[in-house]
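Quiz preparation item.
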C-alpha cells in the first residue's frame, strides 16, 4: 500500500502527462473538470487505504485533439483572430461549426476540410483568400452555412455543397457570375453578394438557373438596372446603393412572390406605369434616396402594401389617389408606414383624404424639407 504523500505525487505526475495538460488554448481541460467535480467523498475514495486503491483504476480518456491556439468546445472550433495563414490541421472530425474569421489565410487547398463530413457552418470572413481549389468543399456533405465575406475572391467558388442553404459572399472582388455558377444548389435559400464590383453584364444568362431563393441581396455594386433572370421564387430582393436610373415595365414581371423590395440609394428618376402591377404580394417598398419627382403609379392597386419609403427624393406634390384606392374594401392591409420627409412637398397642401387607408396619423412622416 502506497503512503498518502506518495499517492499524491503520483496523481500530480499523471495529471502533468495527461493530454489536457498540453492543450495550448485557455480553457478548462478535462482533468480540471474531473478534479473539480470530485467532492470530498470522491477524493477520499481515490485516496483510501483500503484494499483496491483507486489509482490502479484511474484511466486517461481518449481526448480529441484541438488545433494549436484554437478553442474547442461542444463541437465548435473557434480559430478566429490568430493570424493564421492557412487552415489549421487536426480539426476534430465531429466539428459542427468552424470559425476561421479575421485571419490571414490566402488560399484554400484540396484537403483543408478533409474528413469534416459533419460540418454545418463555416466562417472564413475577413481573410485574404483569392484562390480556392475546385475540390475544397467536396468533403462537406452536410454544410448549410458558408460565410465568405471580406475576402479577395473574383469568382464564385466551384463545387459548393449541395446541402448549402446560406451563402454570404459580399465584399469580395467578384465581377462575373458565370452560367451555372450555382448548379446543384437546389436547397439554397439566401445569397448575400453585395459590395462586389459587378455590372449587369457580369451576370451571364443562366447564372441563377436552378435556384429557389427566398432572399437575394446585390447592394453596393455597379448595377444600372434590375438584373435579368433572377430566381422567380424570391420573397426579398435588395438592390440598394447601386446606379439604377429607371424601372422598366418588364424589370419586375417575373417576381410575383416578392413581399419586400429594396431600391433605395440609387439614381431612379422614372418608374414606368404598370411596373408595380407585377408585385401583387408586395408589403414593403424602399425607394428612398432616389430622384423621383412623383409618387410611383400603381400603389393604390397593391392590396397588401403596408410600408413605402419615399424620403429623400424630389417629390413636390402628393395627389389624393396616389396611395389609396377609391373603392371601399379594395385594400386588404392598411399602411403603417409612409415616409415623405426630405422632399420639397408642401405638406400643408396635401389633402387628408390622400391617407384615408393609413392605420393612423403617426404612420405618415413628412418632416421638414431643407434645400
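Solution:
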Amino acid at each position: 500500500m502506497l503512503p498518502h504523500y506518495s499517492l499524491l505525487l503520483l496523481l500530480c505526475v499523471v495529471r502533468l502527462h495527461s493530454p489536457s495538460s498540453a492543450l495550448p488554448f485557455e480553457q478548462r481541460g478535462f482533468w480540471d473538470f474531473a478534479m473539480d467535480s470530485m467532492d470530498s467523498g470522491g477524493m477520499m475514495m481515490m485516496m483510501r487505504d483500503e484494499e483496491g486503491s483507486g489509482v490502479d483504476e484511474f484511466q486517461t480518456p481518449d481526448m480529441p485533439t484541438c488545433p494549436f491556439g484554437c478553442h474547442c468546445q461542444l463541437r465548435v472550433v473557434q480559430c478566429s483572430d490568430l493570424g493564421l495563414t492557412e487552415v489549421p490541421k487536426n480539426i476534430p472530425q465531429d466539428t459542427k461549426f468552424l470559425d476561421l474569421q479575421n485571419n490571414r489565410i490566402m488560399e484554400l487547398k484540396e484537403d483543408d476540410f478533409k474528413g469534416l463530413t459533419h460540418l454545418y457552418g463555416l466562417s472564413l470572413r475577413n481573410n485574404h483568400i483569392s484562390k480556392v481549389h475546385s475540390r475544397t468543399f467536396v468533403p462537406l456533405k452536410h454544410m448549410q452555412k458558408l460565410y465568405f465575406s471580406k475576402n479577395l475572391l473574383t469568382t464564385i467558388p466551384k463545387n459548393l455543397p449541395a446541402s448549402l442553404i446560406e451563402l454570404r459572399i459580399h465584399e469580395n472582388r467578384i465581377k462575373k457570375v458565370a452560367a451555372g455558377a450555382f448548379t446543384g444548389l437546389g436547397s439554397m435559400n439566401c445569397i448575400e453578394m453585395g459590395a462586389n464590383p459587378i455590372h449587369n453584364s457580369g451576370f451571364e444568362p443562366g447564372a441563377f438557373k436552378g435556384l429557389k431563393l427566398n432572399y437575394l441581396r446585390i447592394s453596393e455594386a455597379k448595377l444600372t438596372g434590375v438584373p435579368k433572370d433572377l430566381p422567380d421564387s424570391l420573397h426579398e430582393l435588395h438592390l440598394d446603393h447601386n446606379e439604377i436610373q429607371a424601372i422598366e415595365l418588364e424589370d419586375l414581371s417575373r417576381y410575383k412572390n416578392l413581399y419586400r423590395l429594396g431600391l433605395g440609394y440609387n439614381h431612379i428618376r422614372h418608374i414606368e406605369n404598370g411596373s408595380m402591377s407585377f408585385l401583387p404580394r408586395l408589403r414593403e417598398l424602399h425607394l428612398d434616396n432616389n430622384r423621383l419627382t412623383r409618387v410611383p403609379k400603381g400603389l393604390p392597386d397593391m392590396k397588401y402594401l403596408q410600408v413605402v419609403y419615399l424620403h429623400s427624393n424630389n417629390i413636390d406634390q402628393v395627389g389624393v389617389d396616389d396611395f389609396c384606392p377609391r373603392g371601399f374594401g379594395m385594400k386588404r392591409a392598411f399602411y403603417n408606414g409612409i415616409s415623405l420627409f426630405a422632399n420639397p412637398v408642401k405638406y400643408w397642401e396635401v389633402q387628408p383624404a390622400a391617407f384615408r387607408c393609413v392605420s393612423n396619423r403617426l404612420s405618415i412622416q413628412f418632416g421638414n424639407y431643407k434645400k
